[in-house]
Amino acid sequence: MSQSLKQIAQTLKNSQKKVQLIYAFNGTGKTRLSRKFRLLVDPKETAEEQEEQEDTGIEVMYYNAFTEDLFYWDNDLDGDTNRKLIIRPNNFTNLVLKFLKDQDLDGNIASNLQHYTNKFLTPYFNGNYSEVSFSIERGDDDTLNNIKISKGEESNFIWCVFYSLLEQVVEILNITEVEDRSTSQFNNLKYIFIDDPISSLDENHLIELAVNLAELIKKSNGLKFIISTHNPLFYNVLYNELGLKKKKGAFMLSKNEDGTFNLDDKYGDSNKSFSYHLYLKETIEEAIESNTIERYHFMLLRNLYEKTANFLGYPEWKKLLPEDRQLYYNRIIQFTSHSTLSNEVVREPTHPEKNTVKLLLDNLVNSKYWKEEVES
Fold first, then answer.
1. What is the reported pLDDT for 313?
2. In whole angstroms, what is the distance from residue 335 CA to residue 325 CA?
3. 104: left (phi over 0), alpha (psi -120 to 50) or beta
4. Does residue 195 sit in helix, strand or coil?
5. Closest CA relative to residue 211, chosen from 201, 221, 5
6. Which of 109, 158, 314, 347 could make a disulfide contact with 309, Cβ separation 3.0–4.6 Å?
């Protein structure tokens, strides 16, 4: 049924589903939909209304292209030395940055940024969190200060600011007793709308981001999430991680020639639609062939086992491991694919662990399980 974006936003708002995942091609209207949704849930526009909101608490948080526009560069054109990213003050950034400063979360932002970009790239907030400078710190004479980072790194940084906030918000709202929470700022928060946070990530990190976001969503109590994307792989990972095949919370947004829109239920197996299994298999095979296996490949391997088990209806992915050493291989995969958001230094996989990746991949793709799935 053809609808306006405002009507679709109302449909999303009225839904009782915890997660609504939307796939749409670029230019369809995802960003405008997120804006319409925000104005529908929280129509405050004047300075007075925004000031009042700081006291009563926000009802919706969203990440989209407008979020990125709140950050802009001062390139120090005269001196060409003191380059910094300025954070435009508004109701959202004032709330976010004050909270991040009060909670001393700049370290979380830095570790997330380094994980998705460059392990030496370090952001520094100024005293009131109104601007950020960046350095490349290798611990030697090659340290570079006040650099201008790439557009992709900038987008990643802004996402890491949002994600670091979201992590803390989920943790706070999961505390049942309101009086026991460290802040009351988020007591009225109901909705999180995320539109395409992955435009500059390579495919391996894209998978990690989707898996981590899905885990955070599953941990959350009370919040409702709307996520829109044009990226098939990002959509597919979230679809599977959140179990939306059974919950029927996936949609396709399309635009009609008359300017109206359709939000249709997306049925069918997403794995087949986007060849997710084959992509994971090829990614792991390339790493084996080039001897470049890293820690995240264990996560991809586990992901492959999980999706195959889910597709075939097995209650646990561990059932697909070699029967003679099932417990041993399960421990290796569980330990090596542990959360990548840890602040601890992660060692490189050992040679025997790398050999295990090949062994377990061969075990899966050469078994009756894989053949059953491919032939289905």
1. 67
2. 16
3. left
4. strand
5. 201
6. 314
**Residue type for 209, please?**
L
Compute and round to an integer the Cα radius of gyration of the chain.
22
DSSP summary character for residue 340 = T
* DSSP SS3 for 260: coil
Span 156-176, average pLDDT: 93
Q: Mind listing the pLDDT tens digit for each residue in 46-98?
A: 445 445 545 557 899 989 888 888 999 998 777 777 889 999 888 778 888 78
Please list, in sequence order, all residues whose beta carbon lies within 8 angstroms of the beta carbon of residue 352, skipping any fewer than 6 positions away.
none
Contacts of 261 (CB under 8 A, 6+ apart): 2, 3, 4, 5, 8, 28, 29, 253, 254, 255
List, in sequence order, the alpha helices (H) in 313-350.
Answer: 326-336
Contact residues for 34 (Cβ-Cβ < 8 A; gap 6+): 62, 64, 193, 195, 226, 228
Residues 321 and 330: their CA atoms lie apart, in Å, by 8
> CA nearest 311: which of 371, 360, 359, 363?
371
pLDDT in tens, 253-297: 988 889 999 998 876 444 444 456 776 788 889 889 988 888 778
Q: Which two tokens stand for residue 166?
A: 């979201």
Nearest to 202 by CA among 339, 123, 310, 294: 294
